[in-house]
Amino acid sequence: MAALSIDRLFDAAIRIQIMERSISLTFSENIVRIRFPTTRRLAEFLEVPHYYILPYFAMMEEENLITRAERVGIMTTLKGSQKVLTLMQENYAVEMQEILGPGVFSALTGKK
């Protein structure tokens, strides 16, 4: 098992979205927020116990990358959305364009 890290969790979240062919976006206050998979879903995907994931989510909240709201779920902040979109552009552009469409993907990433 590879060591966990915030970067690995963000990458896993994107890979889950690709695998499920679904990305949930919320637009509010001039911010694009991206729904993160649940902690249990990430733990299952990474094949680690759920309690291994929880400290990283606390760190991501402290670093203002995500926000958790009861009955709403885990969403990225502006900083977290920028991190996700950068990873999508650098590592998963083809897959993201297939899911989001080239126009939406381009508008989100600012890349043509």
Describe the structure.
The chain has 112 residues and is an alpha+beta fold. Helix content is 59%, strand content 16%. The chain is built from six helices and four strands. The protein has helices spanning 6-20, 39-46, 50-62, 78-91, 93-100, 102-109, and strands at 25-28, 31-36, 66-69, 73-76. The protein has a four-stranded antiparallel β-sheet. Strand 3 and strand 4 form a beta hairpin. Helix 2 (39-46) crosses helix 3 (50-62) and helix 5 packs across helix 6 (102-109). The longest helix has 15 residues, at 6-20. The protein is globular. The termini are far apart. The model has no long low-confidence stretch (mean pLDDT 92).
**Which value, in Å, is the CA radius of gyration?**
14 Å
Major sheet: arrangement of strands: 1-2-4-3
Backbone shape? globular
> What is the H-and-E element order?
HEEHHEEHHH
Please identify the structural class as seen in this structure: alpha+beta
Count of DSSP-assigned helices: 6
Portion in helices = 55-70%
Q: N-to-C terminal Cα separation, in Å? A: 37 Å
Mean pLDDT: 92
* Low-pLDDT residue spans: none
For the biggest sheet, the summary is: 4 strands, antiparallel
Strand fraction: 15-25%
The total strand number stands at 4
Quick structural gist:
59% of the residues lie in helices and 16% in strands. Strands 1-2-4-3 form a four-stranded antiparallel β-sheet.
